[in-house]
Amino acid sequence: MPTLPTSVAESMQGLRLAAEQAARMLKARPALLVLAGITWGIQLVSEYDTAFAFVTTLMKLVFSAAFFGVVAEIAAARGSGITWKLVGSSIRSLTIGTVVITTAYTLPVLIGAPFLNLALGSRLEGIRWSLVVLVGITVVPSIAAIWSLAYWRSSLVEAVLDGIQLMKGRWAVALAAGIAYQAAALAGQLLRMFLLASLGISAGLALAGLIMLAWVLLEAVFRVTLLYWLFDDVPRPFELETAA
Question: From CA 23, how far away is CA 11, in angstroms rounded?
Answer without folding.
Answer: 18
